[in-house]
Amino acid sequence: MEQEALHDQIEAYLAGRLSDQERALFEQQLADQPELAAEVALHRGLARLLSDGEKLAFRQSLAAIAQSLPSPGAQATWKKLRLLGWSALVLLILAVLGWWQFRPAAVVKPSIRQAPTLPATDTAAELPPSLPPAPQELPVPPAAPVPVPAPVKKPSPQAFAPNPALEAEMATAGDPYYTIQDTHLEVVATGKAAKFRLTFQALLLTALEPPVLVWSIRSNKPPAGEEKMSITIQPELLEIESNVRAFALKKAYRLAVDTVATLSPGLYYVRLQVPGQEKPLWMQPYQVVE
Which residue ranges form the domains of the chain, and what is each CATH number? Predict the structure, then answer.
């Protein structure tokens, strides 16, 4: 009965039916008793190979043998026999599985069946009197010509040549009452032919009331360039601490342009000026490329 109770406890441990306290106590016994640990490992291996009915029958047969050995020496002999019995059963099951896995394939001999004999017939009488003519092959149309892309027209070197008159005008740009600084010009292709998006930002510093300014683009075409576009800019006072404290000092104004223009590759001059004055406040060249 003691061995059967031990088997029940091992199976309850493997099935997860022990409480947390019972499980902790049993695992402590496993750590202290190598024989118990070996028997648990044996039970775990057999549980994977046998069904519940087979385990019950095998355990009952082992219990019957244990009852027939009441003496301590017989009990020790029984423990050895029980371990040997479990080991033999495992080896037997593994041997059967190995034979089943690697058994020779059965050779199936093909059966030879004699084709039935067909009655002789007059094949000439069954054929049509004349066969239809073979279909004529249709003419293959000629392959469509592969379109050859037109050569890309490169701009002439004159398109990027500096304009002397505009270069001289750029050298005189500036005004003591209006200061232009922190300029930034960006030209980005829109994906359409010769269409570019132009973004311009700058700061205007002045102690005077700022006038409306004119922002324009001129090409380098001789003699004095050709105006491509012109936009008026209203300076916007920045809300910064220096502007609040400034009275007779210069204040900062924001200048911004965001537009789309049609431009071909070449050299252009961007200008800022006060309307009615020929001298620009600021001027800078810019190259537009495809």
Answer: 2-101 (no CATH), 157-288 (2.60.40.10)
